[in-house]
Automatic annotation (TrEMBL), chain A:
CDD domains: ABC_HisP_GlnQ (cd03262). Its main location: membrane. It is found in: Cell membrane. Residues 2-240 form the ABC transporter domain. Keywords: ATP-binding, Cell membrane, Membrane, Nucleotide-binding, Transport. The lineage of its organism: Bacteria, Bacillati, Bacillota, Bacilli, Bacillales. The keyword Membrane applies. This is Cystine transport system ATP-binding protein. InterPro entries: AAA+_ATPase (IPR003593), ABC_ATPase_HisP-typ (IPR030679), ABC_transporter-like_ATP-bd (IPR003439), ABC_transporter-like_CS (IPR017871), MetN_ABC_transporter-like (IPR050086), P-loop_NTPase (IPR027417).
Automatic annotation (TrEMBL), chain B:
Residues 32-220 form the ABC transmembrane type-1 domain. This is Cystine transport system permease protein. Signal peptide: none annotated. The lineage of its organism: Bacteria, Bacillati, Bacillota, Bacilli, Bacillales. The chain crosses the membrane at residues 31-58, 70-91, 199-219.
Amino acid sequence: MISIKGLTKSFDSLEVLKGIDLEVGKGKVVVVIGPSGSGKTTFLRCVNILETPTDGKISIGEQEIDFSRKVSSRQISSFRRLTGMVFQSYNLFPHMTAIENVMEGPVTVKKEAKQKAAEKAEYFLSKVGLADKMKHYPFQLSGGQQQRVGIARALAMEPQVMLFDEPTSALDPELVGEVLKVMKDLATEGMTMMVVTHEMRFAEEAADEVIFMADGLIIERGKPEEIFSQPKAERTRQFLRLIQ
Amino acid sequence: MYLNSIFADPDRTARLIDIAQSSLEPLLKGAIFYTIPLTLITFVCGIILAVLTALARISHIKLLQMIARIYVSAIRGTPLLVQLFILFYGLPTVGITLDPWPSAIIGFSLNIGAYASEIIRASILSIPKGQWEAGYSIGMSYRQALTRIVLPQATRVSIPPLSNTFISLVKDTSLASLILVTEMFRRAQEIATTNYEFLLLYTEAALIYWVICFLLSLVQGRLEMRFDRYVSR
Ligand SMILES: Nc1ncnc2c1ncn2[C@@H]1O[C@H](COP(=O)(O)OP(=O)(O)OP(=O)(O)O)[C@@H](O)[C@H]1O
Ligand SMILES: [Mg+2]
């Protein structure tokens, strides 16, 4: 499904990603963990091409994009459609209601008819448990509700892969559960997902694979129970000790 | 002194009331047919110019950036009255003769374009980067993210400062009197030179400006309320 080869990213002289290789099968859930500054956000942003990688190849399904050559903005837009991004700070459009947020992509980007897009948006908002909040503006919603609208907005573009960058770390503890539940449901339904999170419970329950990143490299990868109970690398052990 | 002379002399009082009444119509006509249309036309042209200038300044094309910068700097660095004089009295020297009305429209539009572009640029830059990225992440192009996501939010931010610009423009149009546009203030001057009641006529003109600006500030309040419906207060 996703295949990433030799992905690097530098900001000026700072090399943040130092060559990442990763395969994610269809319907698999990969959780990325690692210390602050290790490049997790940058990694996801590169897959969504919000940052243009310095070098490397990414392919999703049939489509491949090779960053060792110059890529056009058209190539980027068409590739970006394959992935949906959920941001730590939600980034909902504040001037639009929940349903307008979700309809925006289908109507403006895919040129779908408003009526059809509205029906689809209702479907996705119901799916994330917000059928009764469709006409609310973001400021009228709690953080957990806003993040669920964010998930519905990404789903409405019908991506092949969903990317989550610490989707619950801006939330009050009592609101984390409702967002994780939506994500687990998605995983159960067979969505391919890459999730950066510090929620170890979620990793244990929903992940097929856990990846430990440090200093712009994948240090260790494996099934959640392997990584959490018998980490091989010393760096992984240190990190897990810190967060537990 | 003035008040004294009014009340001491009933004939003079009657004359002043008469002048005030008879001058009201030409002054209002000046406002309705010149001051207000001049303000509206130049504001619309100026805002279009301002949006283009702001976009040029935030674009990645160096040449566009530079042209926009020079334009804004030149307009902001020179007096409006001097700009109007160059257009109307200066350009004929090189064979470009403009009537008062077009000179005024061009001059004021260029002026608004420069000042408002700074407001619009700042408003665009005040929208968090995450908004652009959220737009891109659902597949939008630069243009779509700009027009659907960023400009609508920037509009809300820019309404109070742009309203100030607009209200200043209403008053600045009085400068057009100096390039022979027969707007309200010029009419006040013309009438005053026939009867020498300068204080009366200029005060009357001032009151009309005040009323117009007051009405505009009411409109501003309503606009702000409309755009604030999606932010918590
Ligand atoms: N736009 C940028 N320009 C320059 N440096 C950047 C930029 N974005 C990220 N970095 C740097 O890249 C490194 C990795 O950042 P990144 O945000 O990917 O880490 P992270 O693993 O997501 O950390 P956290 O857990 O704190 O979110 C950091 O040193 C950061 O300062
Ligand atoms: Mg991060």
